[in-house]
Design goal:
The complex is a heterodimer of chains A (670) and B (352). Chain A is mostly beta strands and 670 residues long. Chain A has 6 helices and 37 strands. Chain B is mainly β. The chains are: A mainly beta (670), B mainly beta (352).
């Protein structure tokens, strides 16, 4: 039907919303395309149905999230991305989402605990490729600058079939979408703040009918010499934090997209990051000179081809180099890792209501790491997958996905995912879709796995080449209610319950000779509830978007080997049971006021649950004003963090910063 | 996780008392401790990254435990990072906090902080001088930490009246807990294959060559030194060496081929040796002709000490070094008495 008219313009610089809307129906054509009706700007929480919305429609790729029916995605909106463009992923996600990070302090290691799992159980994907450091198998969210990505989303819950190894607790998705709007646009920002924070960022993009390019750069430094108080034997004593300097952090990204003929698109992307920082010791320990240099170079070449209106295929190659140099006492422990990988996939429409993607990927890891001994190590991994999306009738969406990974120790288990979503619109009385409440029920089940990391296999002494992959089974079910409140306001409620078992959970334990070695020791259960409510109001020039979210996470060991001494039934270390966030963004003319508050429950710091960090709550606000000038906008903003000057810690012996400010000045031209 | 075991001055002083009474007139006995024997202080290194080490106070009479006696007695203050050892001098405790580069001075048994000795580097064990009861020696590591190599360490002399370092003496790499005998301070070096011998009267140093480095040395009631030398994992197995300083004779007891021994202790009467090998605790009489072949207790202790009052055996099990460990008590014959949860990484017990 509509596809015929769409094909010729598929890769043209279409400014027309209709064309985009049509493109959005590719592969899931027919009745399921009900979502073409324009709606207000996206909320933070989206069901997969919302991917059909106009504002999100892209001609280019059919994203994997299309096949994630029944799962949640927390999508960071453009306002949040703009406010945190000079910052790091941990600052953005801690302020705007109810996600918990084990955070050692500003600029220090920040590791995610998604749905109660460990940092190695969250896959961080950049443009569809896993960028967790291969040696550690996890990502440090303090060294991932926000500005390089144009789209940031978090998908809690297991999703190995879609995202491969490590997506047990969930996945964090960083993407760069080509902006084909013609012309040249850009922005330049300067930041300054408390404790020696200085930074700057630049983003420039331009497009013609055949070429689109985008460049981003950011730079930052901070002394982090803030005051803190220690309770000592002779009373409270005030100190200034030492050994926590962020010497520099920069990021440089370059994307170029080229339209080849009417059906092809070639994309080349490079992202370089470099962070040089002190590794701060506990404030109870003596000062150190520990310092770490983290560098990543990521290159990606991708070709996508629209074979027909109902088929597209793509091939992609990526090369990553990760450097982690750890220095202390004047000596350096060096790690160099190179990951070469290739992906190929083919996506085709199945009748009018479905689409099927099949694909394969291969990875080659090479590492020269001092801790592995003098010889370099290498290993190969591969996987094949099939993703099916089928919408049998309007308002009913199904997906079924499969992935089989092949790992050096043998095959990982087959990891399927199934998901369902059903929209219930009540009686057909209201005049238009947009005026009726929509209740969406959803559920999904999936198996997941995590390949052993290079450290787990090759560290000397102690590396265990016989380690099995961790595997998990996860289930979730929930409901979302979208309630319009007249023409100017709407409410969105969502609740999701989840249950997950992770088997062969890996722990490092000392053997009889005192050598620490990883083993598949335990089974861990994580279950809980994620709820959120969002309210939107538009009145004349005033805009309000307020969200509240709460999550309850109960994660415990349920079974363990004899050598695993940690007790069963106790909440795991550094997993808060309660986490809540309230965010409100208000706009009035050129003014923007964003306020946020978050509360984090008690976190145990030992496995027995006898020592803990107390619960805390922090609040922050950002006030900005934009002057509209000829051809450009000038925005100044002031952000205050820890408004109430709370003393708290993200990790024992690592006091968080007191009240702090950050001022930014940004020039956008168009 | 190679933190060495606690030095127990009380045991040592009792051992020395016995030995001195029997064979030597060139030493002054150390000042007796002021405790009644009611308490056992458990040294908990704590989680390294957190930096939250502690000392638990176990009351043998009740029996009850105060998990973090320093925090309880000092307004909730944290003792420091990697609590390594504690030495009792009279009614004062000297708590060596390795990764905080300090010795915390506390009143006993209340554990109120009275002073802090600074100016130290990775301190390990404090030993009270036999010739001057107001003087003490602290062994310290230099160089490191990973990935930097360790360099020859030192012994700092402390004036216990001012709590200041007065001078330092160079020793081998990574000195461990020293022992006093025959007017000498014998310092084992776990990174150098020799004992450093410091003459208490003159301050002069000399060395005793060993087949491999040793981290532990004890003196028996006859003034002989017992030294646990580690394996080099290549050609040399671990050995227990008996060294008689007067005659410079060495007797070698080779351990079975795999791994090193650890945690060498001597009973308060200076007659029974205890050590850990292959995750079990062994006991040997100083007159035995060979090492024991069967363990006294089959459990992998991170610390092991002998109560000088009751003769009971106190093992500390660090489990996986991240969950709170156990204090496990045994009758002198190895029969289990009870088990108490303490704090993370308990490495030994000090009796008072």
């Amino acid at each position: 039907m509509i596809l015929n008219s769409f094909i010729p313009s598929f890769f043209s610089a279409g400014r027309c919303w209709r064309r985009c809307a049509l493109a959005g129906t590719l592969l899931v054509a027919g009745p399921a395309a009900h979502a073409q009706t324009p709606r207000p700007a996206p909320p933070d929480t989206l069901l997969s149905a919302r991917r059909h919305r106009l504002a999100e429609v892209r001609v280019r790729a059919v994203r994997p999230s299309r096949f994630a029916v029944g799962s949640r995605q927390v999508v960071l909106d453009s306002l949040a991305l703009a406010q945190y463009r000079g910052g790091t992923l941990v600052e953005l996600l801690e302020a705007r989402t109810p996600l918990y990070f084990k955070n050692y302090g500003p600029g220090q290691l920040a590791s995610i605990a998604l749905r109660g799992t460990a940092a190695r159980h969250t896959a961080v994907l950049w443009q569809g490729f896993n960028i967790n450091i291969p040696s550690l198998g996890e990502a440090d969210f303090a060294i991932l600058p926000v500005g390089a990505a144009t789209s940031i989303a978090v998908q809690p819950g297991p999703a190995a079939a879609l995202y491969g190894s490590g997506a047990i607790g969930g996945a964090v998705l960083l993407d760069t979408e080509t902006d084909w709007r013609p012309g040249l646009r850009g922005s330049l920002q300067a930041d300054a703040g408390s404790w020696g924070l200085r930074g700057g960022s630049l983003a420039v993009r331009g497009a013609t009918a055949r070429v689109a390019a985008r460049t981003t750069a950011s730079w930052r430094t901070a002394q982090n010499d803030y005051p803190y108080t220690l309770q000592e034997a002779r009373g409270p004593a005030r100190y200034r934090l030492a050994n926590a300097v962020l010497h520099h952090q920069w990021s440089l990204s370059q994307d170029v997209a080229l339209r080849l003929g009417t059906a092809g698109e070639l994309t080349a992307t490079a992202w370089l990051t470099d962070t040089d920082r002190d590794i701060m010791p506990s404030v109870y320990a003596a000062p150190t000179q520990t310092r770490e240099l983290d560098q990543s170079r990521r290159l990606l070449l991708s070709y996508r081809h629209l074979a027909s209106a109902r088929r597209q295929w793509s091939v992609r190659g990526a090369w990553f180099e990760d450097v982690l140099d750890y220095q202390d006492g004047g000596a350096t422990s060096r790690s160099r890792m190179r990951t070469s990988q290739a992906q190929a996939e083919h996506t085709a429409a199945l009748g009018q209501r479905g689409s099927l993607r099949v694909g394969a990927e291969a990875q080659h890891f090479a590492a020269a790491i001092d801790g592995y001994g003098p010889a370099a190590v290498a290993e190969n991994r591969a996987a094949a997958f099939a993703l099916l999306r089928y919408d049998p009738r309007p308002g009913l969406r199904l997906s079924g996905n499969l992935r089989q990974a092949f790992l050096p120790g043998g095959a990982a288990p087959l990891t399927p995912t199934v998901g369902v979503e059903w929209d219930w619109r009540g009686r057909q009385a209201a005049p238009a879709d947009s005026a009726r409440p929509v209740l969406t029920l959803k559920a999904s089940a999936s198996r997941s796995y995590r390949a052993p990391t290079l450290n787990e296999r090759y560290w000397r002494p102690g590396g265990n080449p016989g380690l099995r992959p961790e595997t998990g089974w996860g289930y979730e079910a929930g409901a979302q209610l979208r309630q319009p409140l007249g023409p100017r306001a709407s409410l969105l409620f969502e609740a999701t319950a989840f249950h997950q078992l992770v088997d062969d959970w890996v722990q490092w334990i000392p053997n009889a000779q005192g050598i620490w070695s990883p083993s598949n020791l335990r089974q861990v259960r994580s279950q809980g509830l994620e709820t959120s409510a969002a309210y939107r109001l538009r009145y004349l020039r005033y805009r309000l978007h307020a969200r509240a979210a709460y999550s309850l996470t109960h994660t415990t060991k349920v079974l363990g080997a004899a050598a695993d001494y940690d007790p069963v039934g106790v909440q795991l270390l550094f997993v808060p049971r309660h986490q809540a966030t309230v965010v409100a963004d208000q706009q009035w003319g050129g003014w923007v006021l964003s306020t946020q508050a978050s509360a984090t429950g008690r976190r145990y710091t030992d496995a027995a649950g006898s020592a803990f960090l107390p619960a805390y709550a922090v609040a922050g606000a950002t006030l900005g004003y934009t002057w509209r000038l000829a051809g450009c906008d000038l925005t100044s903003s002031l952000r205050l963090t820890n408004l109430l000057n709370q003393a708290y810690s993200g990790y024992p012996g690592r006091p968080a910063p007191p009240r702090a400010w950050q001022a930014s000045l940004r020039l956008d031209w168009r | 996780m190679n933190m060495k075991k606690l030095f127990r001055p009380l045991l040592l002083s009792l051992a020395l008392t016995g030995f001195l009474a029997s064979c030597s007139d060139n030493n002054n006995p150390p000042a007796p401790t002021g405790g009644s024997g009611q308490y056992a202080f458990v040294i908990n290194e704590g989680n390294f990254t957190s930096g939250t080490g502690s000392v638990s106070r176990f009351d043998k009479n009740t029996p009850t435990l105060i998990p973090d006696i320093y925090a309880s007695a000092n307004n909730g203050a944290v003792l420091g990072s990697v609590v390594q050892s504690m030495t009792v001098v009279g009614t004062t405790g000297y708590v060596v906090v390795n990764n905080s580069n300090k010795v915390e001075v506390v009143s006993l048994p209340e554990f109120k902080s009275t002073a802090t000795i600074n100016g130290l580097n990775q301190p390990r064990y404090l030993t009270q001088s036999a010739t001057n009861p107001r003087k003490a020696y602290v062994t310290e590591w230099l160089g490191g930490p990973y990935p930097a190599p360790y360099t020859p360490g030192r012994v700092s002399l402390i004036d216990l009246n001012t709590n200041k370092v007065t001078s330092t003496i160079a020793v081998g790499i990574n000195p461990g807990k020293a022992t006093l005998a025959n007017g000498n301070l014998y310092v084992p070096n776990s990174g150098s294959a020799f004992l450093t011998v410091i003459n208490e009267a003159t301050g002069a140093t000399s060395t005793i060559t060993l087949p491999t480095p040793a981290s532990e040395v004890v003196a028996d009631k006859n003034g002989a030194l017992w030294i646990l030398c580690s394996t080099d994992y290549v050609t040399k197995t671990a050995t227990l060496e008996k060294f008689i300083p007067a005659t410079s004779t060495q007797q070698v007891f080779p351990l079975p081929a795999v791994g090193s021994g650890d945690g060498l202790r001597i009973s308060p009467d200076g007659q029974q040796l205890y050590y850990k090998y292959n995750a079990a605790e062994y006991r040997m009489n100083i007159t035995d002709a060979a090492l024991p072949t069967t363990p006294l207790i089959k459990r992998d202790f991170y610390g092991f000490d002998i109560d000088p009052v009751t003769g009971q055996l106190y093992g500390t099990d660090a489990l996986n070094y991240s969950t709170p460990g156990k204090l496990v008590r045994y009758q002198p014959n190895g029969t289990l008495i009870d088990e108490t949860t303490v704090q993370v990484s308990p490495n030994g017990v000090v009796f008072y």
